[in-house]
Amino acid sequence: MSVKKIAIVGNPNVGKSVLFNILTKQYVNVSNYPGTTVEVSRGKMSINGIEYEVIDTPGMYSFLSITEEEKVARRILFNEKPDIVIHVVDAKNLERMLSLTLQLIEAELPVMLVLNIMDEAQKNGVIIDARILEKELKVPVVEAVSIIGKGIKELKDRIEAYGNRL
Ligand SMILES: Nc1nc2c(ncn2[C@@H]2O[C@H](COP(=O)(O)OP(=O)(O)O)[C@@H](O)[C@H]2O)c(=O)[nH]1
Ligand SMILES: [Mg+2]
Fold this sequence. Notes:
37% of the residues lie in helices and 26% in strands.
């Protein structure tokens, strides 16, 4: 069985790399995306004996792909056809970030949504009901505080469950 591929996508500064590092730990390789100067990190993770390749994609705001980083992120999504696309958002600015979630879903990519930086969102009084969001979007939604590893266990469980449908 081939290794399943997971791409982590989202705006810059939402915690993609922190999440990537928690998931992949030491097995990481950093290289320029072919034909570009954009660095892409790839790592390995295993959940209950199932191996995954995890890709930390450059930040993107939308599919319009204006910057070289966004073009690389788009190419990873459409050329490498990941089995799971984890869209990481900053929960403080959820509304602003959901348009990319919708674009990813409309493109029929296998999306999971991670509401990261929940600690600051809660401090700011932002109230999010992940279960309602999940029903509306019809994709798995996981709350996380990546810097302290909160939500990672649930994320891995949901990745495994998602993988079982593939
Ligand atoms: N408070 C808080 N900060 C976070 C969390 N996750 C990431 N950060 C911080 O957000 C900043 C951007 O993280 P990074 O992983 O580099 O974002 P990326 O650009 O999406 O890869 C860093 O300063 C992180 O320490 C979180 O859950 N809570
Ligand atoms: Mg990063």
